[in-house]
DNA sequence: GGTGAATCGGAACGGGCATTCCGTTCCGAT
DNA sequence: ATCGGAACGGAATGCCCGTTCCGATTCACC
């Protein structure tokens, strides 16, 4: 009994949903959360059955929402990039409002929070992916905008050398977060240790003469992961 | 040193081998090389059939020398650690002989060469491994000895802050080499870019007052990967 | 040349996992 | 109270991959 003109999407998500749909919606978020946890813990090779079990649903329910394992991973990635974009904007707001926010600068603060954040590391694409999906592209653009603000601010504040790019920030995210065989707290501490080192290096390079060559361009970075 | 793991004692290896054994020996090194390449390219999930094909032998021949996929990966890891130990000793010799070897210091030079070296990244254990095998333990000790020399030298030269440990070097190796979706040359350039940043940070921390907390201890690091 | 042993390559086996299919359950409307 | 259909859980399916097995091949030695 769908409404006569109902298109492919039902967008009003705020109202109290009818019971059965409510469960579906709840299942969906449960699946996403379970997937995030399971993939973070066991890596890419975790089974769909595992995800389903963690979410407390059957595999069928997982597949109804995400037609394929790759699609599920994709959804996770989009979510991760959106979160990162949100964080970048948030930090940019802070540092632009209070110029003396901290010695780390906006980029450093962003990286630190992203590293210790609950969302987990940004997932990398499954492999030979096609052209990048629209929703990911949009999220990616938002992220870039936020990073642009951070980099501009820090450069003006003199804690970033010329040649440092927004793509550098993404690369650092990758570099600063290899999975370590330690409990989360210890691993985070180690990651922050190296972040601190890099930030010192950045500040030193910014202060003294020794220049840093030009970093990768954003579109190079995005392009390299797709197609 | 051809003996992959251990075997019945037929170790007279120097003389020109009889034809058939020569082929076996050749196959063995071909398999090792193929495995290194295939795993480096396709990651851990590459199939044994792929390895065999790359080596130009049948799967049966691979399994005759390496009873299991994990055993093959193990052999690769041991090889990698041995190479790293050799490199560390070599660089230590250089910097100890010519004190002004370069601004990078011994640790920086070691990291740079290890990153761009042909041996590829150090593989991480398969997962829940048991206690660490004897040959790996020996290679690991050699590596530690070499790193100890490098760290001592650099600290004396004033390019490393107190608190920086040999285990830090290993962690840095992990941090500095995430796989990047770029051709080898470009990826290497990026890795070296971040290595340069870290080294700047290290030098800065060494010069100015701001201390670096104590890094991980070697045995913690080794222990975390096994058992 | 002929023979036995060691090695080879690849077909066959078994298990695990992504994906599909279907009988059951539950909600809302009649 | 009953019915239609949407959502559910999990069994069944098909494929890929690690591993095993075996007949063919090759070489050393006679």
Per-chain topology:
Two copies of one chain form a homodimer.
Chain A: H1 19-42, H2 48-55, H3 59-65, H4 69-97, H5 105-116, H6 134-157, H7 166-175, H8 184-207, H9 218-225
Chain A binds a DNA duplex (30 and 30 nucleotides) through α1, α2 and α3.
Element-level helix/strand string of chain A: HHHHHHHHH
Mean pLDDT, all residues of chain A: 85
Shape descriptor of chain A reads elongated
Radius of gyration of chain A: 20 Å
Keywords (chains A, B): DNA-binding, Transcription, Transcription regulation
Protein name (chains A, B): Transcriptional regulator, TetR family
Region (Disordered) (chains A, B): 1-27
InterPro entries (chains A, B): Homeodomain-like_sf (IPR009057), HTH-type_TetR-like_transc_reg (IPR050109), HTH_TetR (IPR001647), Tet_transcr_reg_TetR-rel_C_sf (IPR036271)
Detailed description of the structure:
Two copies of one chain form a homodimer. The first copy, chain A, is mostly helical. Chain A has a single domain (9-223), classed as Tetracycline Repressor, domain 2 (Orthogonal Bundle). The first copy, chain A, has helices at residues 19-42, 48-55, 59-65, 69-97, 105-116, 134-157, 166-175, 184-207, 218-225. In chain A, helix 1 (19-42) packs across helix 2 (48-55), helix 4 runs antiparallel to helix 5 (105-116) and helix 4 (69-97) runs parallel beside helix 6 (134-157). The termini of chain A are far apart. The A-B interface holds A 45, 171-172, 174-176, 178, 180-182, 190, 193-194, 196-205, 210, 212-213, 215-216, 224-225 and B 45, 171-172, 174-176, 178, 180-182, 190, 193-194, 196-205, 210, 212-213, 215-216, 224-225. Chain A binds a DNA duplex (30 and 30 nucleotides) through helix 1, helix 2 and helix 3.
């Amino acid at each position: 009994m769908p409404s006569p003109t109902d298109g492919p999407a039902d967008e009003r998500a705020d109202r109290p949903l009818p019971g059965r749909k409510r469960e579906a919606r709840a299942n969906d978020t449960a699946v996403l959360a379970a997937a995030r946890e399971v993939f973070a813990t066991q890596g890419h090779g975790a089974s769909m059955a595992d995800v389903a079990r963690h979410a407390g649903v059957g595999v069928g329910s997982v597949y109804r929402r995400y037609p394929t394992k790759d699609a599920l991973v994709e959804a996770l990635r989009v979510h991760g990039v959106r979160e990162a974009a949100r964080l970048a904007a948030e930090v940019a707001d802070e540092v632009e409002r209070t110029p003396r926010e901290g010695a780390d600068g906006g980029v450093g603060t962003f990286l630190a929070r992203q590293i210790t954040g609950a969302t987990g590391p940004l997932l990398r694409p499954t492999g030979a992916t096609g052209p990048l999906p629209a929703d990911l592209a949009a999220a990616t653009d938002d992220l870039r905008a936020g990073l642009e603000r951070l980099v501009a601010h820090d450069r003006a504040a003199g804690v970033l050398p010329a040649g440092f790019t927004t793509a550098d920030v993404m690369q650092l995210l990758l570099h600063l977060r290899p999975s370590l065989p330690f409990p989360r707290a210890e691993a985070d501490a180690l990651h922050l240790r190296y972040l601190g080192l890099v930030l010192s290096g950045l500040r030193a390079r910014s202060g003294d003469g020794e220049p840093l060559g030009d970093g990768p361009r954003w579109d190079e970075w995005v392009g390299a992961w797709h197609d």
